[in-house]
Write the structure tokens for this entry.
Amino acid sequence: QVQLVESGGGLVQAGGSLRLSCAASGRTFSNYAMGWFRQAPGKERVFVAAISWSGGITGYADSVKGRLTISRDNAKNTVYLQMNSLKPEDTAVYYCAASMGRAYYTTANQYAYWGQGTQVTVSS
């Protein structure tokens, strides 16, 4: 069992930045690939970014490439999402997720553990 707690969300103006954190507890964090997903009101949860267990491989949704960066610190059991040049369409609840696999994964059903989410609101 892995417990995930997100933090760092908030209200920011368009063009601004936020850094989300996801702290993991329970089993060995480095055994898990990690991902970030988001869900806007009335829409499905969608993939944002993912990172392999070692941090050596990352992947991004086309809509966030060049603006968002995923990273992890296995010594701190934490995964991060640095969000720059934010747009109003980035407004959503952001969830981190953990998968037992070693690569990175882009679909929600590949992740077994989820956090409770953190709200990001970007004003125009």
In short: The two ends are 40 Å apart (CA to CA).
